Structure formats: C-alpha cells, structure tokens
Amino acid sequence: MREKSNPDFVEAIARGFSVVRSFDGAPSQSLSEVAQRTGLARPTARRVLITLQELGYVASKEGRFELTPRVLELGVAFFGDSDFWDAAMPRLRQLVDLTNESSSIAVLDGSDVVYVARAAVPKLVTLSVSVGTRFPAAQTSLGKVLLADMSSVELDDVLATPSRSGVVPPWDPDRGELDAVLAEVREQGWAISDQQLAPAIRSIAAPVRRADGTVFAAVNVNAHAAETTLEHLQNVHLPHLLSAAEDLGLDYALRARIPVATTG
After folding, report:
1. How far apart are CA 166 and CA 213, in angstroms?
2. What sequence ranges are listed for the domain HTH iclR-type (predicted)?
3. What is the bridge-based pairing of β-strands 191-194 and 134-136?
C-alpha cells in the first residue's frame, strides 16, 4: 500500500483497487493469498472482497475468489468514454502501409506506458505486444515522448511509482542521464529507443498533442534491429511518423468539437 501524501486520500478505495490488481496473473485466490499479495490484514482483505462481491466485481466458490467480467467496466470507462483509439486505427494502418513496420499508440500510467491501439505486421519479435501491454516508460520511445512533456515535479512523482510491467530492461539510467535524454527529446520533438527495453527492439516515437499543445499520447514505429537500422528509422520512417502524429492530434481536436448527444 502506498504512503498517503494527500489529506483527501481515501484509503478504502485504494485498498479496493489493490485487491482487484492482486488478481493479475492469478485467476482465482483464497483469502490468505489476497491478503498476502496486497499486504492487507486478513479481516481487511475479507471486508474488501465481500464489498466487491456485493458490487458484482468478485465471485466466490468453494473458498476461492475470482474477478467477474464486470471489472471490464473499469477499463471500458477509459476506452469507452471516447472511442478515439478505435477511430485512430486507420491512421495506424496507413502508417504501417508506408513503413512496413508495426505501429502503436500508448499513454502513460504511473511509470509505465500502456498500449491503447496497435497495428502489427508479421516480423521477428522478441516481446509480445498487444492492447493493454505495459512497459517501463523510460526505456521506450513512447515513454520518453510522454515523460518529456512533464515538469520536473511531475516527473519526480511518476518515477517514484514502481513499474507494474514485470519487465527488467537492460538500460537503467540514473536521473541525470534520463534528464539529458528527455531534454533532447523536447528539443527535437521525437524520441528513439535502441534496444533499451529488450535486445533487438528498436523504435521511434512522436507525441500526439491536444489543441493546446499538451501531449496526451504517443505513437511509434517499431522495428527489429536485425532488419532496420537507426538511420532508416530516422531518415525514412520518421517523416511518416511525424505526419501521422500530427493527423492524430487534428483528429482528436476535431472529435472534441463534436457535440455529445444527450437523451431525455
């Protein structure tokens, strides 16, 4: 459980989410397992589980608990309020057609990037990627773009959050090294990652901006180091990538201007 840094922090809600997250990689758990994985006392874990069960997010059978499909509502609230990620797919496919490389869009969640859209091509791969996949942000081109848009204080906060990706990258920069990298990203307007997340993974990313210029997502072109050089990524794929990122930002701004239909 994280330390409370805000007087308005609601610990009961935090406990509830910690219990939900404890099922990652564990389809079903006993009460003892939930308590152990969350660090909660057994009586507290039991009350949280009973509450989630009453709300329909957890089911129990023969002393074991499992999440119900209703938990998908928690993620759908992010994707469903705006179907922008689905609407972005034609842009990604167009980028894939131009580069013959896979392309993804990601957003920041703590110190991780989370993939929200992806168009892939059959290629040599060393990491499996799909919508919902998360990786440590600092080691990815997508993450560098997103981190570069933050103030120093915001960056401190994000980097203090442990990654939940389960990935241990070969590149582990100290803060000074990362600051230098992010300063370069801010200056040039794009980021590159050369096997910093995993061997043979090479990518280049650009920011997707709102109308006010703030970055809300990043889009990349991903390649295998044995097939695509850094020079090719930068000289051939980058212009297509920057154009796609700009188009995605314009699409987002246009959708934001569309009136939301109401009923009643």
Report:
1. 32
2. 10-69
3. unpaired
φ, ψ for residue 52, nearest 5 deg: -65, -35
- Computed from CA positions of residues 120, 99, 223, 131, in that sequence, does the dihedral angle turn out positive or negative? negative
Q: Which of 238, 206, 202 is nearest to 219 (CA)?
A: 206
Residue pLDDT, tens place only, 114-137? 999 999 988 766 678 888 899 999
Query: From residue 39, how far is each of 32, 71, 104 by CA, in Å?
Result: 10, 21, 35
Strands of the sheet containing 28-30, edge to edge, are: 28-30, 64-67, 58-61
The C-alpha atoms of residue 225 and residue 192 are separated, in whole angstroms, by: 13
Sheet holding 134-136, edge to edge: 134-136, 112-119, 102-109, 215-224, 201-209, 191-194
Sequence length of the chain is 264
Give the C-alpha separation, 159 to 198, whole Å.
20
- What's the pTM value of the predicted model, to 2 decimals? 0.70
Q: Would you call 1 helix, strand, or coil by DSSP?
A: coil
* CB-based contact 170:199 (threshold 8 Å): yes
Give one word for 166, left, alpha or beta, with left for phi > 0 and alpha for psi -120 to 50. left
- From the list 259, 257, 263, 255, the residue with the least C-alpha distance to 83 is 255
Tokens describing residue 151: 């103030």
In the beta sheet, which residues pair with residue 32?
none
Instruction: Quote the CA–CA distance of 195 and 178 in Å, as a whole number.
Output: 16
